[in-house]
Design a protein that fits this description.
The structure holds 2 protein chains of 2 kinds.
Chain A (H helix, E strand, L loop, with lengths): L11 H21 L3 H27 L7 H18 L5 H20 L7 H21 L12 E2 L3 E3 L2 E3 L2 H24 L1 H11 L1 H6 L4 H28 L1 E2 L6 H14 L4 H24 L7 H22 L3 H15 L1
Antiparallel strand pairs in A: 1-4, 2-3
Chain B lengths: L1 H34 L6 H17 L4 H24 L7 H23 L16 H7 L5 H23 L1 H11 L1 H6 L4 H27 L4 H7 L1 H8 L4 H21 L12 H12 L14
The chains are: A mainly alpha, B mainly alpha.
Chain lengths: 341, 300
């Protein structure tokens, strides 16, 4: 990779990792995985939610602002994308996607304003306002839903350069492209001066301010970029996974899920977002298949989902006590142990 | 005149509904005062407690026995929380503790549903959710009996807790622990007992709040979302003040009802869902420490 002022210098290891991941996601997976189930039920939602987790990671893991409203921004992004494609003739999909991210970012700045005055649980309550307000607004003003009374709107097909991407594999490739670009950007920001400012604010905001870092700029920037990621993720989530748009899909439960992905995956790491999203998404699948195959459906589905909740909760407590940096750190530790030998 | 009467009715209904928020907020304040922990799981405790109570009733226990058994169970929950969650996290940052209690909330919700199922239960306290004839006759106001009971129960709980904290030896110890746990334990105040007492008290408050809500809307998972509204109440009232929890609850209850009735129809209704949070944001801008909270002083 050519390095210039925009992109940071990458080490050889980074390059190898990047190429390896690209080969796996663009060659090995499309060749070996044939069943649509894997794409539409596992890979696509995983990548979408991982993208949203990166957004949550930026505001919470890097900038240290306890926010709980990722799903609200996802809803904003999803409905912005729907309306842009519906109302602007011939808008290219990626332009619509980027614009919906920007619209979500505007909401992010608006609801990030309280972060200038408060922190911790106070901020969490303030960001909850965004969650409830955005979903309510979309639900109550018919314009956003194009006056559709059924409550469920089918998402438009993704059309790029005249070709429509509708099969699971095609949609997967679109998402891989978007996620790759945005993840690289996020890694850049996190390693660069932007990320260092965020972390300085996270670790001690008063000290950071006295070093000349503008709290206003840094915090709002984190909120805006976080909401941008969530917005894009929400649009992709609605267009490729849900294939429909309904405000209910973006309720507070999804916000909690994304929060858990970040906490369990590991605060302050981009890889943590991917690991956490994979875990939160796959664990229920695993639990269900155990329920079906080992106990042959003898356990009620509601009991299984309750167990799932208990396990997530217990894991969060355990991680908070023993490894506050989450699974990403755990993975690092294991790798280091093997390297030593 | 009827318009004014209607307004008064709306405000009164809001105030009385607000006492239910106050009850949840009260449990929050108790734990915050004693251990400086934002117990995010208080909402889940409400759900857990009332579901347990209904579960024991279904097993055939009489009302009072079920009540006692549930309180013992909540004491046990508090004991386990103290031992397994808060002790190991001593001296960690507030945010870490908050995240741990979010996890605790999920554990309680999951356990409650695994043990007692997810279907909506009816809870009959023998108090109807209908207007009292006597008040209609004298004042011409429609006030629900259940609302009024909730208000009275909340008032007596607060009175009881205030007396407990102010005039008993246990309460004195609790205030000492809240001030400085290290100093308190070094002069021989039994930290563990105090914590157990506080968590049990929070459990009792959670149970009462859950019973009031359950009698109105059925015992169901939606209680957890309703309980989230205790957070804006706390921001308005201040996290460490019992009167603050009450006043905050009343303000939120009355404001959201008035907004819903008078402004809601222009926007298609259901603004109750977010109005408390926006109200809290405005409060944060002017008084981040809340109406009755202690001034927040941060040092580098």
């Amino acid at each position: 990779m050519k390095s210039n002022k925009i992109f940071m210098e990458y080490t050889k290891n980074d390059l190898i990792n990047f190429l390896l991941l690209m080969i796996i996601s663009l060659l090995i997976i499309p060749i070996t995985v044939k069943s649509g189930y894997w794409y539409s039920s596992i890979l696509i939602p995983w990548l979408c939610l991982a993208l949203a987790s990166i957004g949550q990671q930026i505001v919470m893991g890097y900038a240290g602002q306890l926010a709980l409203g990722a799903a609200g921004f996802m809803a904003a992004g999803a409905f912005a994308c729907y309306n842009l494609i519906l109302r602007v003739p011939d808008i290219p999909f990626f332009v619509a996607l980027a614009l919906s991210g920007l619209i979500a970012a505007a909401f992010g700045i608006l609801f990030g304003l309280p972060s200038l005055r408060v922190r911790g649980i106070y901020l969490m309550v303030a960001t909850l306002a965004s969650q409830f307000f955005i979903v309510w607004m979309i639900d109550k003003f018919g314009w956003f839903k194009n006056y559709d009374s059924s409550g469920i709107i089918t998402a438009q097909d993704i059309v790029i350069m005249g070709k429509s991407f509708t099969s699971p594999l095609e949609m997967y490739l679109v998402i891989v492209f978007v996620v790759t670009v945005l993840t690289l950007l996020a890694i850049n920001m996190a390693r660069g001066s932007t990320g260092r400012n965020w972390m300085a604010v996270r670790d001690m905001d008063i000290a950071a301010e006295s070093m000349g870092i503008s709290l206003l700029r840094t915090k709002l920037q984190a909120f805006a970029i976080s909401a941008f990621y969530c917005g894009v993720a929400g649009a992709l989530f609605a267009f490729t996974y849900l294939k429909s748009l309904e405000p209910v899909a973006f309720d507070i439960k999804l916000s909690f899920k994304i929060l858990f992905m970040v906490i369990l995956g590991g605060l302050g790491t981009i890889s943590g977002a991917f690991i956490g999203a994979a875990f939160i998404l796959l664990f229920p699948v695993l639990l269900n298949s155990i329920g079906n195959n080992v106990f042959h459906g003898a356990i009620d589905a509601t009991i299984i989902s309750s167990i799932e909740q208990v396990v997530f909760g217990v894991l969060i407590i355990i991680f908070m006590i023993y490894e506050p940096l989450g699974m990403a750190k755990l993975w690092d530790n294991i790798r280091l142990k093997f390297k030593k030998r | 005149m009827t318009e004014l009467l209607f307004f008064v009715e709306v405000v009164v209904a809001g105030l009385l509904a607000g006492t239910m928020y106050s009850l949840v907020a009260l449990g929050f304040v108790l734990i915050y005062k004693a251990s400086s922990t934002f117990n995010f799981a208080q909402g889940a405790m409400v759900f857990f407690a009332v579901l347990a109570f209904v579960g024991f009733m279904e097993l055939g226990l009489p009302f009072f026995l079920a009540f006692i058994v549930t309180i013992l169970l909540m004491g046990l929950v508090g004991y386990c929380t103290e031992r397994l969650v808060l002790k190991p996290l001593m001296n960690q940052s507030e945010d870490t503790l908050l995240m741990a209690t979010i996890g605790l909330g999920f554990v309680l919700e999951g356990l409650a549903q695994a043990a007692w199922g997810v279907e909506v239960r009816r809870l009959d306290l023998g108090i109807g959710d209908f207007p009292i004839q006597w008040i209609i006759d004298t004042f011409g106001l429609f006030v629900s009996a259940l609302d009024l009971t909730a208000g009275l129960v909340a008032a007596s709980l607060i009175l009881g807790l205030s007396v407990l904290f102010k005039y008993t030896k246990m309460g004195l110890g609790l205030r000492a622990v809240a001030d400085d746990p290290g100093a308190a334990s070094s002069i021989g105040i039994p930290l563990n007992n105090i914590m157990l007492l506080v968590w049990t008290a929070a459990g009792v408050v959670a149970l009462v709040a859950g019973m009031m809500w359950g009698a109105r809307a059925g015992v169901q998972f939606a209680l957890v979302d309703l309980a989230l509204k205790a957070l804006p109440v706390l921001i308005i009232g201040g996290f460490s003040s019992i009167p603050g929890a009450i006043v905050g609850g009343l303000i939120i209850g009355a404001t959201e009802k008035v907004l819903e009735v008078y402004i809601g129809p222009y926007f298609g209704g259901a603004i109750e869902g977010w109005a408390p949070y926006v109200l809290a944001i405005f409060f944060l801008l002017y008084r981040p420490e809340g109406l009755f909270g202690e001034k927040i002083i941060r040092r580098v």
